Amino acid sequence: MILPGANISRSFCRLLWLALITQAAICGPAGAAETAPAAQQEGGASEADERVERKFQKLMEFDDAVQAEIEEWIQITLTNRIGDATIQQGILRSRIQDRLEPVRKAYEKFIADYPNHARARLAFAGFLRDIGRDQEALAQMEKARELAPNLPAVWNNLGNYYGHNGPATNAFACYEKAIELNPKEGLYYGNLARTIHLFRASAGAYYRLSEAEVIAKAQGLYRKSLELDPGNFITATELAQTYYALKPPPPRPDAPEPPPSQQLADSALAAWEAALKLARDDVEREGVLIHIARWQVESGRLDAARQTLAKIKDSLHQAAKAELEKAVQQAEAGKAKKEVQKAP
Questions:
Q1: How would you label 195-223 residue by residue, b for 16+ Cβ within 10 Å and e otherwise?
Q2: What is the number of other CB atoms lying within 10 angstroms of the CB of residue 80?
Q3: Where along the chain do its domains lie?
Q4: Fewer CB near the last or first residue (10 Å), C or N of the chain?
């Protein structure tokens, strides 16, 4: 539920206007893209090069301005819902398509004038993917790779394409190449981690790893991404999410305490606590608290779960909060029943 005055993220708006103009389902990993990586010059740039670069930057500014304008329209539409929603969406869809057309033409003209400008082709590919024209985007990315095979952003964005459209193994290879070319960029590690975690069966076959080893590999990549970009809330939450896919091994009588299930819960809670410190607003903060409470319930820390749930006030999280409060009550009832049965 979107409330009037709620802050709607730019990435959400971009996904929404993609859905509006294509009427297509959005699936697959949403890998972070680089649409206009910085120019890499060997020595000083010529006056002609500088002139082309200024034109390119002007094109990027035009694209950004139009996207910001569209996102503002979406914000207004979502927060001021009046009348028939279907009619509103139809009007907004038509308006967005009309506004994007001059941007598309500007890209096409620039590329016609400068066909060997790899970064322009990469940026145009990002624009085309945003409007649901993935095959055209792939052609632009492939041409950019041909022109600039050592540009890591090309490989990263190709990884995004294959992560969304398949095969996932192509995505793994592309992200690995991006990391090889620029091992200091946390974005690439996060994108590879996300794709490995989402396509665990493919990753297991590709890397010859068990499911648990695949998850451990994804977690390691997420940690590397956070090492390079320590303030990234999204990466921290994605790392914490991976713990839901783990299954603790069965306990052994001779195993030291705590049992494996408790160790898993402790690790998951530590990851969510780390994400909590990076939350940027109350909605994100309380969203993390929902996950913390879920693990507290799972591990039998019912008093702690109640205290955590009491901190959640935003209406966006009330359904999940109510579900967890019910789970706490059921767990407490089950615990009380066992104690009665044990009594002499």
A1: bbbbbbebbbebeebeeeebbebbbebbe
A2: 9
A3: 148-242, 263-344
A4: C
Cβ pair 46, 158 in contact under 8 A: no
| Per-residue DSSP letter, 199 | T
State the pLDDT at residue 304: 95
**How many CB atoms within 10 Å of residue 8?**
14
Closest CA to 245 of 224, 268, 220: 268
Task: Decide if 293 contacts 303 (C-beta within 8 A).
Answer: no
Return the pLDDT at 4.
27
> Which are the contacts of 311, defined by CB distance < 8 A and separation ≥ 6?
286, 289
d(CA 245, CA 202) in angstroms, rounded, equals: 15
For the chain, residues with pLDDT lower than 50 are: 1-28, 41-43
Model pLDDT for residues 181-190, shown as the tens digit of each residue:
999 999 999 9
- Global pTM reads 0.82
CATH architecture, range 148-242: Alpha Horseshoe (1.25)
**How far is 176 from 273, CA to CA, in rounded Å?**
29
**Residue 329 to residue 306: CA distance in whole angstroms:** 10
**In the chain, which ranges are E strands?**
none
Q: What is the pLDDT of residue 91?
A: 82
- What pLDDT is recorded for position 17? 46
Half-sphere CA count of 66, side-chain side, radius 13 A: 19
Q: What would the two tokens of residue 228 be?
A: 């390079």
Report how far apart, in Å, the C-alpha atoms of 13 and of each of 70, 141, 188 are.
Answer: 9, 24, 23
Percent above pLDDT 70 for the chain: 79
Which pLDDT belongs to residue 334? 77
Instruction: Give the H/E segment covering residue 156.
Output: helix 152-165
Question: Which of 128, 291, 132 has its CA nearest to residue 299?
Answer: 291
